[in-house]
Amino acid sequence: MKRTITATACAAAFGLAVYAAPALAQGNIKIIYEPPKKPEYAAILGRLKERKVLETLQVFLSPMKFPLTVRTAECGSHYAPYKMGDAVTICYEYVDLIESVMPGEKGPRSSDPNQPDMFRYLGRIGPILVTRDMATVGPFVQHVLHETALAAFDNLDAPVWGRKHDAADYTAAFLLLQFGSDVARKTIFGTAFFLNQWDTIIREGQMTDVNYLGDIRPTVRQRYYNLLCIAIGKDPIGFSSFIAIGRPVTPIDLPGGRIGHCRGSLQSDRPSPYSDYEKVRRAFVGQILPHLDKDQLKKVQSMKWIPD
Amino acid sequence: MMRIVAAAALALALGSSTVVTPAAAQEFPPELKNDMIEIEYNEPTSAKYQPIYQRLKERKLLEQLAAFLSPLKLQGALVLSLEEGDPRACRGPNSYYDMAGKLHLCYSWFDYLENGVAKEIPRQPNEPFTSTSLGLIPGFTRAEVIIGGSVGVILHELGHALFDIQDIPLFGREEDGADQIASLLMLQFGRQVALTTIKGFYNVWHHSNAERLIAQKGQIKPYQEADEHSLDIQRSYNLLCMAYGKDPEAFQELADRLLPRIRKANCAEEYKQVAHAFRKTVLPDIDPDLMKKVMEMQILRPEDFNR
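The joint structure predicted for all components is written out below.
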């Protein structure tokens, strides 16, 4: 039943946009729902198809002028590396992973004895409450944008300095912040919740594993901080719950030293030109934006992607 | 691709224990001059840094670095400074680019290499070399570490300078980008220099990682993963992967011994990614005629490896 709620929530979040603007879909974005072998993934596929998740992504990605295929598939692991010329793949295993760490039935403990179930079906990242919707939509969209960024780097022959997956994380986070504060808040908090949960679960076994540390991808916790870096870089007020103000720093927070690199001074009303946020923004504007249909982009940005 | 022969020469000078007289110092063609580059030798106040200062000054480290950089059509001025520096900034040990056109090479870094990383630590006969083992990696030499660690940090900070002065687009994390510039350049001037510098710089990150693990009782803390730098162990793998990706034959033994198997398969692609970024964002601003002259400069001396 848990999966029904979450996969549906995830799909429904996007379904709204499809019903609103089917005409925006472009022919250069192809979609494929691949049938899985395992029966539990068939159930996930069924729900994604029913709610037209890939069709919605077709609209969301429609400003891209270069051809791209997006597919859902059973991968054998939660991640299928993007290869040049190949499709962007969303693995059923990854959706399953997202669902496995989402807020549970119990939720955080309530301190009010009169309302013991107050936080039922809710999660928390720091002081921020996270709904099941947020905890599934956020990481799902972040993952799609991450993989699409990799595809964009390849298709557009973009110069990428830094590790590719950090670059894709930074670009994905940047994009999540371009669709209004509502989308930014829900997807960033939801993704942060997911990554924090995931790292907490795997940390003890992985941090001494050379295969984990030696992987081409950053650690899960590094990805968590990558996300916060760009979010705080753009909007330190909106994401101030991740800044330790008047309290000790915890692993949930972005430490001050990193904030300085991501944003610059918090007293300034704009990110520093040397901040990570500004660097990604300039790179995006210079290398990717010229290859987006600007009229289409405005339409997509004006749509309401995530219901209240 | 530009051959950084001058970088190799200056790096070897850092490892030399012999006094280099002005007559023996490198002479550089007068045309290898870049009006956008200035150099500063700042005499240290601490006595312990005097030998390093003297050695580097006599060897004309900064003159060599300036000559090496001469083909670059810089969009802004660059100052290359050897210094004891601000106690907070140069503590660490450290060297840094200050985002205001100045590259600060701190004596503390060179001291760390000579008296920290490059130390041969006595071990028991069958004692394994592990992630918490300090000093020289078995099979690595003191000269390699001093040379590699020096060249590595110089080129890393140069990477920051390039990103800033040339306004190079950055999608990823800049610290990793600077590491990539360093490793890419290290691999452009022949196998011997590539092996020396890559091994040396790898040893630096291994040692640094070991120091942290010992201090933290074997744990990697989340705040380390929040740093703008990758973990030291990741930096060592990134470096070796680049090398293996460019020249699998030369780096096969090292990769088999020191690189996780899961990483090796993708190293060629990683190297290609960085080489592509360099071709698109740095190479267009390199004067090809001056680059040829830099490549003709004499470099390695066999005695430089005898440390």
